[in-house]
Every structure is written in structure tokens, then in C-alpha cells.
Specification:
By secondary structure, the protein is mainly α. It has one domain (2-114, 151-176): Four Helix Bundle (Hemerythrin (Met), subunit A). Helices cover 75% and strands 0% of the residues. It is built from five helices and no strands. It has helices spanning 2-38, 43-71, 76-109, 141-176, 183-190. Helix 1 (2-38) runs antiparallel to helix 2, helix 1 packs antiparallel against helix 4 and helix 3 runs antiparallel to helix 4.
Length: 191
């Protein structure tokens, strides 16, 4: 139904903006400090953050195309555009949620030491959450650890929701083109 497709498009726009904002906050409050210490940020964190921002932008694009398709059901070019963009976003959002899960697992497993690798201080304890105030780090290691985890969890949930909604939009585009299991029933309803 066009109304359901339009709601999915609006939801993707909202989720995309949320992912974009969370990715920018992670970069501004966590990765900027960690990379600025000695440019020693691990690639997993940087890649997960870039993919999160890219997934947010692509989700916004899929939402806009889905809204356009819901108002122009007879346009074949819009159907193919929705199919290609939503499949790409489904794959990117899935990769984003897996990358963020990897970043969370690495951070929790190492007790935050991967995040504070750039801080070369002998006073730094083995647990980033138990950092003392007198270390030589230019940032607060406890705040970096807690902020990273607090922002990565909702970002991972948003990316997973984007993947699900993008997958639904791609199925709708296939149905509009007459491909798939529900295409025959949809065609009969339209006739």
C-alpha cells in the first residue's frame, strides 16, 4: 500500500538522521580525542564510524525515494531506483551494525584499552574505567570509554532498523515490478 511505503520512507528518514547525528557525536566526542593523542585510533573504530555516517545518509536517500514511489506508483524508473538504493542501504546498514558490534566487543573485551592506545602513560591502569586523574593523557579516559559505549549501542540498533526497513522497501520495489511471491496477488488487486 502506498501509505505503508510512505511511513517506511518517513521512518527511514528519521532513522537516517539519528544515525548521522550519533556518528557525528561519536567522532566529535570520542574518536577526535583518541586520534588526536598520537593518531593511534584503531581502524575498526574509524571504519565503523564512517560506515555509520554513510549508512545514515543513504537511509535518508532511500526514505526520500520511497516517499516519491508512494506518490508515483506507475513510474518504473522510480521502482528500479528504489530497488537499487534500498538493496545497497540494506547491505551497508547490515555491515554497519556488524562493525559497531565488533567495535563494542573489542572495547568491552579489552576493557577500553583499545580506545586509549594513543595515550602513552605509565600511570594508565589496565582498565580504562579505573583511570586516575594524574595521567598524561590529554583526555579523560573514563569519559571516552563510557561515551563510546553509550553511543555505539543506540547507533547499532538504528543501523539494524535501517537494514530491516531497507529490505522491506526493496521487496516492495520487486513487487511493484512484478517479481516475487506477492507480485501476482498485487497485480490482481490493481486490476
Amino acid at each position: 500500500e502506498p501509505g505503508r511505503l510512505m511511513r517506511a520512507g518517513l521512518a527511514l528518514i528519521v532513522l537516517g538522521h539519528g544515525s548521522l547525528v550519533l556518528g557525528a557525536i561519536v567522532h566529535g566526542s570520542v574518536l577526535r580525542h583518541v586520534a588526536g593523542a598520537r593518531l593511534a585510533v584503531t581502524p575498526e573504530y574509524a571504519v565503523a564510524n564512517v560506515v555509520s555516517v554513510g549508512s545514515g545518509l543513504l537511509s535518508i536517500a532511500v526514505g526520500i525515494v520511497a516517499i516519491l514511489v508512494s506518490h508515483n506508483l506507475s513510474r518504473a524508473a522510480l521502482h528500479w531506483t528504489l530497488l537499487s538504493v534500498s538493496l545497497l542501504n540494506c547491505l551497508l546498514s547490515t555491515a554497519c551494525s556488524l562493525g559497531l558490534a565488533l567495535a563494542i566487543a573489542l572495547t568491552v573485551h579489552s576493557r577500553g584499552m583499545h580506545l586509549v592506545m594513543g595515550c602513552n602513560s605509565s600511570a594508565l591502569p589496565t582498565d580504562a574505567r579505573a583511570a586516575i586523574v594524574t595521567n598524561d593523557c590529554p583526555f579523560n579516559t573514563t569519559r571516552i570509554y563510557d561515551t563510546a559505549l553509550a553511543l555505539w549501542f543506540p547507533s547499532m540498533v538504528l543501523a539494524a532498523a535501517e537494514a530491516v526497513l531497507s529490505g522491506r522497501c526493496s521487496l516492495v520495489a520487486l513487487i511493484f515490478r512484478g517479481i516475487g511471491p506477492c507480485a501476482r496477488s498485487y497485480g490482481k488487486e490493481q486490476v
